[in-house]
C-alpha cells in the first residue's frame, strides 16, 4: 500500500458502493466479448437448441475449422485493413503535423484565418450525399484510396498538434534559421522529434479510426478483394449469401454449415488480435488524452 | 478572458506574408488542397437541395446543371410526417445520449477518484474502456448474440422465466438498448477527461475539507463537482451543436433494416445512410440533401445561439 489514500478514510458503506458499481461496470465491459468467444466455441446444433450461453455446454471447433478452411478470405481482409491503417495513419501524421506546425508559428500573420478555413467544415458541410457524388465523380468506386484519403485530416488532430508545437520554445527554430535551415527542415528535424508524444497520440487515434472504418468500404467498394475486415464481418452477419458462399469454398455441405457459431468465430478471428493488443496501447490513449486536456 | 495586447507592428498584407514565410505557406498547400477537395467542394453540393435532380450526370453538372426549384424540396421533406417523426427522434436521441453519457462518465470519474486500490482502479477502468476500441460492426454481433429472437442470451433467459419476449418485435425497448450501448461504448473514454480534472485538484482542498468534518458526499458536491463544472459546460455546449445529428453508423449497424423498429429507433443520419447503402431503397438525392442541409443549419444556428446566450450570462464559459 502506497500512502494513505482518500478512500481509506471513507465510510465503509461508501467504499462498498463505489467498488460494487465500478466492478459491475467493469464486468459489463468485458462480458459481451466473452459471450462472443463462448458462442463461437459452441456446437452449432446446441446453439440452435439452447441459444448463446456464457459457457459452451457442447464444445466444438467446427466454426473455426470453417473460417480457416479458406484462410485466403480472412487473411486478404487482414491485409486490406492493415494496408489502409498503415497508409492512412502515415498520411494523417504527416499532413496534420506539417499543418499544425505551420499554424503554430507566431510570425505567420494569417495563421488564425487559415485555422478558421480548416475549422469551418466542421460547423457546416454538404453532408453525405454530395460527398458520395463527388467521390464517384473522382473515380473512387472500387478504389482503395476511397478508404484512405477522405479520413486523412481532421481539425481535432490539427489543433492538438498546433497547441503542442506552440508550447515548444521558439529559440530552437530561430537557431535553426540562423544555420540556414528552411521551415520544412526545422519542422522535421528539430520540432517533430520533440513532439513525439503528441504525434503518437494522433497516430493511435488515426489508426483506431482506420482499423474500425467500414462506411467508405460499404459505399465505394464492390470488389471482394478489397473488402476490409469490418466489411467482411458486416456481410457475414447481414448478407446470408456470404455465409453460404463461404461454406461452399470451405467444402462444407450447405445443410451442415454451422451458421451461428461461424458468424461469431469470424468476429473473434477478426477482432481478437486487436483486443489482445488493447492492454498495451490503452495507457497511451489515456496519457495522450490527458496531456491534451491539461495543456489544451 | 483578457484582451490580448495589440501587436504594435503594422499588419502585413497576405502577399507580404507569403513572401516572408513562403515555407509555412508551402507546408499548408497539401492541407488546403485536401480541404478544398474533400470538404469545400462537397459543401457546394448543397445546391442539389434546391434543384430537380436527375441521376446519371457528372458531379459539376449535378451541382449546377439542374432546374432550380427553390425551396420545394424542403417543403416536400418537412411536410412528410415520417420525416418530422425522424427529426423529433433525432433530437430526443441526441439529448438522451448527452444526458446519459454525461451522468455515467462524470459518475464513473467521481467513483474512480474515491477508490483507494490503484490495482482495482486500473484493471476496472481498462475493462470499461475496452468497448471504445471496437467498431459498431462488432457491437452488432453482440446485440445479435444477446437479443436474437431464437438464440439470443437475454431472449432465452426471459423465456426460462416464462416470459415470451422478442426484442425485434418490441420497438419501445430499443431506445433503452441504444442509450445503454452508447454509454457502454463511450463512458470509459469520456470519463478520462473528467478523471484528469479531478485528480488535478489540489489534494489539500480535500484534506482541509476533511479536517473541517466534511463527509465524502460533501466533498464531491462542494469540491469535485465545481472543479468539473467548466469542462461539463464546455462539452455540453459543443454537444448541443450536434443535437440534430446522431451517430448514424450506430443505428445503421444495430437497428439496420428492421423496419419494424424504425418507428422508435431511427434518426436522420441513419436514414440518409440507408438511402445510400441499402440497394433498392428509394433514393431521392435532392430531398435527402435538403434534409441534411436543414439538419446542418439547425445545428449551426443552435451553437451560435447558445454561445451568444452564454456570452451574456457567463462570459467565461463561452467558446468563441
Proportion of helical residues of chain B: 55-70%
CATH fold topology of chain A: MetI-like fold
> What value does the average pLDDT of chain A take?
87
Largest sheet of chain A: none
Query: What is the molecular shape of chain B?
Result: globular
Q: Which percent band covers the strand fraction of chain A?
A: under 5%
Q: Which pair has the most extensive contact?
A: A-B, 100 and 101 residues
On the 0-100 scale, what is the average pLDDT of chain B? 85
Q: What oligomeric state do the depicted chains represent?
A: heterodimer
Layout of helices and strands:
The complex is a heterodimer of chains A (296) and B (320).
Chain A: H1 12-40, H2 44-50, H3 62-69, H4 71-104, H5 111-123, H6 128-137, H7 145-148, H8 155-166, H9 170-178, H10 183-194, H11 196-211, H12 215-220, H13 229-238, H14 240-250, H15 259-295
Chain B: H1 14-20, H2 22-44, E1 51-52, H3 59-64, E2 67-68, H4 72-78, H5 81-113, H6 118-129, H7 136-147, H8 153-160, H9 174-199, H10 203-211, H11 216-241, H12 248-254, H13 268-277, H14 285-313
Antiparallel strand pairs in B: 1-2
Helix pairs in contact in B: 1-2, 4-14, 5-9, 5-11, 6-9, 7-12, 9-11, 11-14, 12-13, 13-14
Structure write-up:
The complex is a heterodimer of chains A (296) and B (320). With 296 residues, chain A is an all-alpha fold. Chain A is 74% helix and 0% strand. Chain A is built from 15 helices and no strands. Chain A has helices at residues 12-40, 44-50, 62-69, 71-104, 111-123, 128-137, 145-148, 155-166, 170-178, 183-194, 196-211, 215-220, 229-238, 240-250, 259-295. The radius of gyration of chain A is 25 Å and the shape is globular. Chain B is mostly helical and 320 residues long. Chain B has 14 helices and 2 strands; from the N terminus they run ααβαβααααααααααα. Chain B has a two-stranded antiparallel ribbon. The longest helix of chain B has 33 residues, at 81-113. Chain B is globular. The model of chain B has no long low-confidence stretch (mean pLDDT 85). At the A-B interface, helix 1, helix 2, helix 4, helix 5 and helix 6 of A face helix 1, helix 2, helix 3, helix 5 and helix 6 of B.
